[in-house]
Every structure is written in C-alpha cells, then in structure tokens.
Amino acid sequence: MKIIDTHCDALFKMQVAKRDSLYHAPLLNFENAGELDTNFQRLQAGGINVQFFAVFLHPELPSDEKWQHALEQVDLFHTEIIEKTPQMRHIRKWEDIDKLEAGEIGAVLTLEGAEPIGNDLAKLRHLFRLGVLSVGLTWNYANLCADGADDPRGAGLTLFGKEVVSANNHHRVFTDVSHLAEKGFWDVLELADFPIASHSNARELCNHVRNLSDEQALAMFRKNAMVNVVFFPEFINAGGKTATIADLIRHIDHFCSLGGVNHIGFGSDFDGIKIHTDELRNAGDYPNLINELQKHYTENQVEGFAHRNFMNHLPV
C-alpha cells in the first residue's frame, strides 16, 4: 500500500553528520545508513510513495548562521538524496506526485520554523524556488512570525507572519500549524488557504501542548485540512516513555469520532525522535501499522489514511 509521510528530520541528522565529518566522523549514506530512520532502503521496505523532508534548525543556533544552515540542508537534499538516488524524485509542484513511476519515491522539501528567513520575504520566495512546498511558521519557540507551542507568552501571528501565510497561499504552499501556539493556530485557520498539521495528535488523549484540542481538530476538518498523526510516544501517551501501535490508533479513532476519517494521514517524525513506538522504529516498519489498521478499518479507509486522503487535499 502506498504511504505518504508528511514529516521527517533526516536532513537535520545528515547535516549534523556532515559537520561532524570535519572531525573525521563518517557522512551518512542516505541509501542505507542505519542511523537514518528514513534511509532509502527503509522507505522502499515501508512502501513509502512520498516522503516529506523538513529543514529544521537547532533553536540555539545563532541568528546570523540560520540562513546558511537552512541552505546547507537544502543542498544535502539535492546532492545526497536526489542526485545520488535515481529512484528519488524531487516533487517541485503537487502535480509531480501523479507523475511518479513504479519504483520511484517522491521527496518533498518543507520548512519547519521560519527562523532562517528572519523578516525577509525574498528569502522565503527563494525557498519556494528551491522547491519548499510546506511552511511551518515556528518550531516550539517565538520568532518574527509567531509564538511556538512552548512559548509562555502564547501570542498569535505577527504582521510579518500574516505576510508569510499570504505568500504561502499565493504559491499553493501548505501552512503547517503543528508547532504553533494556540492563538497562532486560530490566526492561521482564519488566513490560510492550505493549512495542515504535519505531525500532531489528539490532546484529549495525551495532554501535550504539541497536540490538537478537539476544538482545533474540528476546525481543521471544517476547513477541509489534513491532520497527520505523529509516532512520538511523548505525543501519544501521558508520560511519553513508551507507546504501542494500538496506542497510536487510539488517536486515529478519536479523530475519526470527530468526523475526520477523510482528513487523517501520517507524519511520523522519524529521525526527529529518539524514542520510538513499539514496532514503528523506522520507515521500514510501516507495514506493521497498516496491518493493524486493517483489523479495525475498511481497506478503503486504510488507503485513505495511507495516501488517498492527502491526495484529495492537495493545494489547488
């Protein structure tokens, strides 16, 4: 079964390895590096049709280095993933997904937090030209666009943040709500043509600031937006030490109970998490999730979660 996964952090992990290589640490080979949850062999084994690759920056990175670090990750995307792996096809526009041939895996660039662009829309437009198709305004902390989920102030979008959403709308790019403070979430829902939660679960089941309340989830569904469940135990169970596939499916069940059966997908957060759900330790384990879902849902519904729901909600 085809899988579309809307979030992983392989680029950040590859960048750290590249910088460590200056001190004789090995580079990570995208094809088979065991350190990468989303290496090419694991994507193949898991049946991944399209994998989103986030540009993510460490929050303690000095401001004057952020743009260079972002460009370095984009360069790794092209040189280490696209150019060295012929079966990986860069998705530059949404229509490219339908053009994937048998055996090819689509690769989508995303931005997880607008810190690299500062207050410069020209940098955002440059990222659009490089192929970025989804933009999260924040990671967990405040920047010049908005406050993040962990910021105690909890403010909404700034005037510049609203300009970023407008640019996303113009370029048919998703605006990702997964890391926003709640006030920012509601601002995005009002302004964005193409909102998405790339990797978020149900706060009703796990009371974490990174999860969506029922009110937020219902608003997403009314907006005809996708909510992609995340595999990180901390966002699945209170305490976050462990989680099973059954625990993850409880979040899917809950969103479906709110009317979201046609709006649910997967955003694993592989390579961005150090603790994994049992039997979902990397992209190659996706069949374990699909097999368990097939015990609870119809084949048509499972195909929806896996890929068809996303394809029915592309920015048009």
Question: Brief overview, please?
Answer:
The protein has helices at residues 10-20, 40-46, 66-82, 121-130, 159-170, 182-191, 214-222, 245-257, 286-293, 299-311, and strands at residues 3-5, 48-55, 88-90, 105-112, 132-136, 174-176, 195-197, 226-229, 264-266.
Amount of beta strand: 5-15%
Number of helices: 10
CATH class: Alpha Beta
Could you say which overall geometry the principal axes of the C-alpha atoms support? globular
| CATH topology label | TIM Barrel
Average pLDDT over all residues: 97
The number of domains: 1
Helices and strands: which structural class?
alpha/beta
Low-confidence stretches: none
Q: What is the first-to-last residue Cα distance?
A: 25 Å
Walkthrough of the structure:
This protein is α/β, with parallel strands linked by helices and 316 residues long. The protein has a single domain, classed as Alpha-Beta Barrel (TIM Barrel). The protein contains 10 helices and 9 strands. Strands 1, 2, 3, 4, 5, 6, 7, 8 and 9 form a 9-stranded parallel beta sheet that branches. Helix 1 packs across helix 3 (66-82). The protein starts with a strand and ends in a 5-residue tail after the last helix. It comes from Metaplanococcus flavidus. Pfam families: Peptidase_M19 (PF01244). InterPro entries: Metal_Hydrolase, Pept_M19. This is Dipeptidase.
